[in-house]
Amino acid sequence: MNKEIQSIRGMHDYFSQELQIWNYLEIIFKEVLTSYCYLEIRLPLIEKTEIFKRAIGNITDVVEKEMYSFKDKKGNSLTLRPEGTVGCVRALIQNNLLNTKNHKFWYLGPMFRYERPQKGRYRQFHQLGVEVFGLDKEDIDLEMILLTNRLWKRIGIDSYLTLEINSIGSRIDRIKYKKELVLFLEKYRYLLDEDCKRRLYTNPLRILDTKNIEIQKILNQAPLLEEYVNISAYNHFKNLCKMISSYGIKYQHNKKLVRGLDYYNNTVFEWKSNKIGTQNAICAGGRYDYLVEEMGGQKTPAIGFAIGIERLVLLMQELNIFSEKVENIHIYIIFIGEHNKFYAVNLSEEIRDLYPKLKIFINFFNQNLKKKIRHAINSSSEIIILIGDKEIKNGFFLIKDIKKKEEYFLLKNELLSKIKNYFKHIN
Ligand code: ATP
Ligand code: MG
């Protein structure tokens, strides 16, 4: 195949069968989010590069290696959004929306990161992002956990996901901790892989969530972030854990859980599944109490999470959860002879006017009758209407009821009222 007409590596086309799951998920997302009073927002796919650098942090993987940045015709540096929080905060500050009574938002759309494509990791992927502003107590952290838990239950995957939570304290706590961690890791420098060596002086916390088993063993002896977390963050976390348990939600306190973006503080959490391979985090989030201020807004605590839709769909496919078959064609119209084509079109338009929910297919292909009928049967049509010279001359149509294996003639009026009864359950 000609390489020039292939999609970009890590960017995929999505076809009808998979999109049925996506549409089904979107309905559940909207229902559940609305029941918690979240409002939808739609944001640009491109922002100024500078705001990502400032908010996400210059030495994070996302900014260092993963951003799709380019110059526009005026030489401004722009970036395809690698995540949604930054654009959301920018939009709320710019539109002066942080002070209004609406403070809970969601969005769904594509994100772009230049990563090594593999199962569950793509260069264009989709996230459902959820953000809440203005609340600093653990009640809202709890609500996010309850909300995500409810989503999993509605989808039917709750027993295949585990919740991991941690507190990463404040930025100052982490500066102190980082020093100790680096001192510890320097002793094992010769055992670190290339990725970890690179992160040792740039982003050492990220080493904590390495997938390398040998390095994980070394980390078992490492100082714990927990011991550097300030007392107020500690209490916030303790209360949150208690409340989560009181709702019967199981969690693991993963003391090595950190986030890849700089703006997080205190609570961080991930929902993981062991059924989709190594890229196992389906949902990740946490607090970002300082981001709004850092981006030029007034001090506003915040918390959010994002669900990776492709990974969620992978899990659903793995578990065979969504088994809705491709929907049938209700009425399949076959005309015999080109000169009868518009008679078929007119009839189909008339049926659509009367019964807008029916799926009506006209076969426009230049095929013989036998082939057209075979196609109608193979595409699970319910009834076929045949229109030839004889039918038009006599003013009736030949109907083939495929389900009931019957065949009969009907006048147009009879046909229209027959359709009404036949597809009562649809209209
Ligand atoms: P990871 O550690 O897997 O790279 P992350 O910490 O970079 O994840 P976030 O930025 O928190 O991820 O994004 C939230 C969710 O979005 C992830 O848990 C995952 O489900 C999904 N996600 C992130 N990056 C990708 C990607 N490149 N392809 C597909 N899904 C992704
Ligand atoms: Mg990542």
From TrEMBL:
It is found in: Cytoplasm. It catalyses: tRNA(His) + L-histidine + ATP = L-histidyl-tRNA(His) + AMP + diphosphate + H(+). It comes from Buchnera aphidicola. SUPFAM superfamilies: Class II aaRS ABD-related (SSF52954), Class II aaRS and biotin synthetases (SSF55681). Residues 1-356 form the Aminoacyl-transfer RNA synthetases class-II family profile domain. Pfam families: HGTP_anticodon, tRNA-synt_His. The gene is hisS. CDD domains: HisRS-like_core. One of its GO terms (biological process) is histidyl-tRNA aminoacylation. PANTHER family: HISTIDINE--TRNA LIGASE, MITOCHONDRIAL-RELATED (PTHR43707:SF1), HISTIDYL-TRNA SYNTHETASE (PTHR43707). It is an enzyme of class 6 (ligase). Its EC number is 6.1.1.21. Keywords: Aminoacyl-tRNA synthetase, ATP-binding, Cytoplasm, Ligase, Nucleotide-binding, Protein biosynthesis. This is Histidine--tRNA ligase. L-histidine binds at residues 83-85, 113, 127, 131, 259, 263-264. InterPro entries: aa-tRNA-synth_II (IPR006195), aa-tRNA-synth_II/BPL/LPL (IPR045864), Anticodon-bd (IPR004154), Anticodon-bd_dom_sf (IPR036621), His-tRNA-ligase (IPR015807), HisRS-like_core (IPR041715), HisRS/HisZ (IPR004516). Homodimer. GO terms for molecular function: ATP binding; histidine-tRNA ligase activity. GO terms for cellular component: cytoplasm. Its main location: cytoplasm. Belongs to the class-II aminoacyl-tRNA synthetase family. It comes from the Bacteria.
